[in-house]
Write the structure tokens for this entry.
Amino acid sequence: MDVKEMQRIVVLVSWLVVSILFGVLTKMLDFVPFLGDVFTRMGIWVLIATCIAAYSQTAMRAAIHTLLFFLGMLTGYYLYSAHLFGVYSTNDMKYWGSIAVVTPFLAVMVWYAKHSRYLANFLPALPMGVMLNLALGVGLFYFNVNYLEELIMYVILCVIFYRNPRQLSIVIILSIMVTGVIELTPLSWFFVF
């Protein structure tokens, strides 16, 4: 085994160890009023996954790093939950585990949304639309900001994917459309959790 392969293994093991510790920390934050609420909702995880994927060196690394992060984080979270309470919700574990398995594919899309000149005009609308959907309550005759924190995270996603004013305008319009599609289809049930 050469030095580069050893370095890659060390990086991957480091990702896994840090993510397990992050999972334990997340469970500890359940007892902190504001942070426990934010880390229970999906928005922060969309933001973290987007950051990991967008700032990875390659699409493959984005996929591997996000998968390792979520698998490690869930492992730490549920092992610590089992240690504290002796039980944990298998339904929650299945839900978040299925999301973790899908994250490599989403991470590749996010990586291309950040790094591809052409795809940056529409692909960022997917994670941004999901975040906007998490932030807002939209109905036929109403519009409400449900979570200010997720709205701030939406602005952070705008900064992450920004290339120029024209591109950002297009992506914002498309993200609003994605939010509408989520609200008007059964996809909205997926994000209720």
